[in-house]
Design a protein that fits this description.
The complex is a heterodimer of chains A (139) and B (271). By secondary structure, chain A is an alpha+beta fold. Helices cover 39% and strands 23% of the residues of chain A. In chain A, strands 2-7-3-4 form a 4-stranded antiparallel beta sheet. A two-stranded parallel sheet of chain A has the order 1-8. A two-stranded antiparallel ribbon of chain A has the order 5-6. The radius of gyration of chain A is 17 Å and the shape is elongated. In chain B, helix 11 runs antiparallel to helix 12. Chain B folds into 2 domains: 8-217, no CATH class; 221-271. The longest helix of chain B is centred in the first third of the chain and has 21 residues, at 34-54. The chains are: A alpha+beta (139), B alpha/beta (271).
Chain lengths: 139, 271
């Protein structure tokens, strides 16, 4: 069973992590443990919680949180229309859109015209029943 | 109706990076096909090697397991599950997993081309069966690692291993594994990385990505020259290389070996 102290030990044992990155990861881990009802984690929220200074650091944090050791978060993909409607994309659709200039196709929503890459979105969902169960016993 | 705003952090990441970099990130956190898994992993291995090389003053003297351990730690930090010396038809140096996909990696210190070739034989004939691709790390601890890597490529491309294979009565087996297949181009092969096709012991085609790692660290400034710990470690590296060259039947420079032994003992006394 993966506990907070076990996660801290995993981080401490890994020499590739800077002390700063360890702190940033632990901030998000603690937040997730203390907010069981929250399942939606957009990048800006993860950046706020972790106190990462740069966007790149924030994405490095998500690599570990969604990685094989913790499996706390799982990535999701979406597109936010100019009218503020969000719809989900598969990863394959997201990748196609990344390389497209003016439009892309979504199985669910057909061809999206007046497309802007800036409106592509990656967010994370809390894994509801992760393989590695987190317990609050050692909080 | 709720109006969703564009997430500024995500927007900054997508607009601030090339599409290829964003794809590499997706292939790291969420590989959905084996090829994506390999693409993401190779990018992360390059980053891990870059990280190791930039701090090689801390690691240059480590053995094969120690150097592989540093790379493992970096890969774990990027979300991969890493097993050192897992039992897979023997003890493979590294097994890397993510999202249900896995990759086997064998590592060797670059003592000499025949020693490195033994590592390749180990990977292809012992561990690989139906895998589509695998990794091979070569750690070069002596001067001119780039040249050493080029010589290794020539050793394979020009089939200089034929003599070694003949002397050890494994030529037919080696021809089945490596045959006439040569290095092939791949967008993932940057820096000291090459890709070569081979056949596994089961007869399946497999691509082996070979990564040359620069582990040479011998500063000759006044501080480096006076550092006893550095001199002792370099002496140990020299002795190991001489020993392995000797056992491989290669010529060794006895004067250099005696100097290294002398350096080792004199530094051991004074530390």
């Amino acid at each position: 069973m993966l506990t907070k102290s076990r996660i801290k030990m995993l981080l401490d044992n890994n020499q590739s992590f800077s002390d700063k990155l360890k702190l940033e990861i632990m901030r998000v881990v603690e937040y997730i443990l203390n907010h069981e009802h929250i399942h939606y984690y957009p990048m800006s929220k993860i950046k706020d919680i972790s106190c990462c200074e740069s966007t790149q650091e924030c994405f490095d944090v998500t690599k570990y949180l969604s990685g094989e050791q913790l499996k706390l978060l799982v990535p999701r993909y979406s597109y936010i229309n100019f009218d503020g409607n969000e719809f989900s994309l598969t990863q394959a659709e997201f990748k196609c859109a990344l390389k497209s200039e003016d439009s892309f196709a979504s199985d669910e929503h057909g061809i999206i015209y007046k497309f802007s890459k800036e409106r592509l979105n990656i967010y994370f969902a809390k894994v509801v029943a992760p393989d590695a169960v987190i317990t609050k016993l050692e909080l | 109706m709720t109006v969703i705003e564009v997430d500024e952090v995500c927007r900054s990441f997508i607009t601030g990076n090339d599409a290829a970099d964003v794809e590499a990130y997706l292939d790291t956190i969420d590989p959905q096909k084996f090829d994506s898994f390999v693409s993401g992993l190779v990018v992360n291995i390059h980053n891990a090697i870059g990280n190791l090389e930039s701090r090689i003053d801390n690691y240059y003297h480590l053995n094969e397991e120690g150097l592989t351990g540093v790379i493992s730690g970096f890969l774990e930090g990027n979300g991969y599950s890493v097993k050192n010396e897992a039992k897979t038809r023997g003890k493979i140096d590294l097994t890397v997993e993510k999202g249900g996909f896995s990759w086997l990696i064998e590592a060797k210190i670059g003592y000499g081309n025949t020693k490195i070739f033994e590592g390749l034989l180990q990977l292809a004939s012992r561990y690989l069966t139906d895998q589509r691709s695998a990794g091979f790390f070569i750690y070069f601890q002596k001067a001119q690692p780039t040249k050493a890597f080029a010589l290794w490529k020539t050793f394979i491309e020009s089939k200089k291993w034929v003599d070694y294979a003949t002397n050890n009565s494994i030529l037919e087996d080696c021809n089945q594994l490596f045959g006439d297949l040569s290095f092939s181009d791949d967008k993932l092969c940057v820096n000291n990385t090459v890709k070569k096709s081979c056949f596994t012991s089961a007869g399946s085609p497999c691509q082996i990505y070979t990564f040359g790692v620069n582990c040479f660290f011998k500063p000759i400034d006044v501080s480096g020259r006076g550092n006893k710990s550095l001199k002792k470690n370099q002496a140990i590296i020299d002795i190991h290389h001489a020993f392995h060259n000797f056992t491989a039947g290669d010529d060794i420079d006895i004067d250099n070996l005696m100097c290294a032994i002398d350096e080792h003992f004199s530094c051991s006394e004074k530390i």
